[in-house]
Write a structure and sequence with these properties.
Chains A, B: This is Sulfite oxidase. Chains A, B: Pfam families: Mo-co_dimer, Oxidored_molyb. Chains A, B: InterPro entries: Ig_E-set, MoCF_OxRdtse_dimer, Mopterin_OxRdtase_euk, OxRdtase_Mopterin-bd_dom, OxRdtase_Mopterin-bd_sf. The structure is a homodimer. The first copy, chain A, is mainly beta. Chain A folds into two domains: 230 residues, Sulfite Oxidase, Chain A, domain 2 (Alpha-Beta Complex); 117 residues, Sandwich (Immunoglobulin-like), CATH 2.60.40. The first copy, chain A, is globular, with a radius of gyration of 22 Å. In chain A, 49% of the residues are buried. The interface between A and B is large, with 76 and 76 residues.
């Protein structure tokens, strides 16, 4: 029998367990409640704003919000480049800048509606928001640094540090060279949101913005950009943010946002059930629709829980290709209980399912929103 | 046997149930998750900021955030007054204004830690924030309108409308005349937060600010102020926001904020468990402390789950009587599992219990924060 040290070493496992799927009927636990208390979604009535005001745009922070000192901050550009860069915020802002209006959605939006539920941030519908992001196109920074032959990917490192499923890490993600260098969607190193410096929770002082992709790609508190000859295999690239039907499925990495439409819930709510109350007669319905794959082609409404549908009026496409579009219609409410729904279809034919497509991480659930409404008998 | 109409009338009860206490071991349900997804607490690392940046200050909205049009908005001052007022935002801003730095805490902060848990917004520790609020002292508006003899209370009505436990209502609260007319704490009709117009979720364009009181008193989206000869008996005055040990306890209304200290959790977190990880040696601990009853007199720290305590260094009181104060100390971490705690005591001798004081609404739980920490063996 081998000698065992009486003193048991204490390691990261004491803080960090493996990924877990909730048991049948298992309700939300204290760990999920702690995440839900820190992070927040868009209150759906805020779909009324073209640009989501600060504090209403969804936020998902993996670890702590780092204390960002914009004077001391340095962004490095290195790896497989001719001339590595180290830029302070002022130096970054001296490059040509652009502003893009972008609808960003959390890859886990809708996770809390899956059954069984992967245990993580228990989003319902609200993990979304739209902002004007101002910054320097990534392809300009890469051109200045000079990408050398053999480059396969660009790896982005944030200043947020923590442990996840036993792995201590800074938050890191990569993009293939083609996506990093693209002109549309154009990836930005952003320093402003809606014309003001980034709020701390949105990446102050610098973050990546990848229009059309789920939010995990838009690395916050960006401190390093590294051009690499090999595919990045870090935790948030290879372990998380992958669609897997089961634990042994090699899976498909998450990239672009699936189509979704959401409505401003009509009438007024009950505080606790969030069920909506309307009075009979015409009820104006409006909301937003988006897709990271292609322009939205149509938005349809159902007032009978998805059995029948009719088309809503959709705003003409504008100059903001990667932002949500408005839609509107009128529903004639009759006394009783109703379940409203709305679904978007894009020009590539991608649409929304009535029931979620289950996966182990609880990602990309774009099943049709269900809005229970009581129409009063008066 | 009486005749029954075959057609059953549908009323608010179809949307709205009675208050409920969770069963033994009952985890958080979809209704609580919906509230937790809309509302959010202060991520505790944001205790580092004297003034909480927009989007990090806690938010609790009962119904929907109303669409506030600052041009069309009118605030009326009426009831038992000589000369009723109807003010637009510009007219309000023509009165003398002041700025007060105020720490605001939700009355339900800590509810999610009660056992059994009253079913509502499942706050853990984060229902708090500090802001600079600019506005017109309420006593000036009341003096201009001229309070008539016999006034007992002032009733405040917000534009947020919904149903709660079966009652359809605008959000309304009252203050006794003495509190409404006081010079310290001075109640404000505020139009700015941290020097900018109020964000929608914080009451745009106008809200009440009652320094030192739990947040329910600071009515958002304020549209009417009415001086009344009789005590207000509305839902949010007489039914909710009352400490009751049981349903038949007449109870005590909530007013001022109980003392509390919170720490910036040290080291770095595990994503899912939120357990903190540190390495052995000196660990700097810091945070904030406040009380709505009296100045904070001392802050103490425990590293053994409340068995022993030592005093932290507390900032001298400044000119912001109703804002939190900083504290700091150093803890020498040794490998193993630890539970840190911090408690505040005010100059009136009010302090924090180790275990919560249970009440049916889950209000005012200022039990000591518990921060599990793993100190690694390396």
């Amino acid at each position: 029998m081998e000698h065992m040290d009486a003193r048991t070493a204490i390691g990261l496992g004491a803080a960090s367990g493996p990924a877990r799927i909730a048991g049948p009927g298992e309700a939300i636990g204290p760990d999920e409640a702690a995440l839900a208390g820190r992070n927040h979604g868009l209150p759906l009535e805020a779909l009324r704003y073209d640009i989501t005001p600060p504090g209403l745009h969804y936020v998902l922070t993996h670890y702590d919000i780092p204390p960002g000192d914009s004077h001391a901050w340095r962004l490095t550009v290195g790896g497989l480049v001719e001339e590595p860069l180290s830029l302070d915020v002022a130096a970054l802002r001296s490059f040509p800048t652009v502003t893009h209006r972008v609808t960003m959605e959390c890859a886990g939006n809708g996770r809390g509606l899956l059954d069984p539920r992967p245990v993580s941030q228990p989003w319902l519908d609200g993990g979304v928001g739209t902002a004007d992001w101002t910054g320097v196109p990534l392809h300009i920074l890469l051109a200045v640094a000079g990408v050398r032959p053999g480059a396969a990917e660009v790896v982005f490192t944030g200043a947020d540090h923590g442990v996840e499923r036993g792995v201590e890490q800074d938050y890191q993600r990569s993009l293939p060279m083609a996506a990093a260098m693209a002109g549309d969607p154009e990836v930005l190193v952003a320093y402003a949101m809606n014309g003001s410096p980034l709020p701390p929770q949105h990446g102050y002082p610098l973050r990546l913005i990848v229009p059309g992709w789920y939010g995990m790609a838009s690395v916050k508190w960006l401190r390093a950009i590294e051009v690499s000859a090999v595919p990045f295999e870090g935790y948030h690239q290879a372990s998380s943010y992958v669609f897997r039907r089961s634990e042994d499925d090699p899976g498909t990495p998450l990239t672009r946002i699936r189509p979704r439409a959401l409505m401003v819930p009509p009438g007024f709510p009950d505080f606790m059930s969030r069920t909506r109350v309307v009075r009979s007669g015409p009820v104006f319905l409006t909301g937003r629709a988006w897709s990271g794959h292609a322009p939205v082609a149509s938005v349809e409404i159902s007032s009978d829980d998805g059995r029948t549908w009719h088309e809503a009026d959709l705003d003409a496409p504008g100059r903001h290709h990667w932002a949500w579009r408005s839609w509107r219609t009128v529903w004639t409410a009759a006394p009783g209980l109703h379940t409203l729904g709305v679904r978007a279809t894009d020009t590539h034919g991608n649409t929304q399912p009535l029931r979620p497509e289950w996966n182990t991480g609880g990602y990309g659930n774009n099943a049709v929103q269900r809005v229970p409404v009581v129409c009063l008998d008066e």
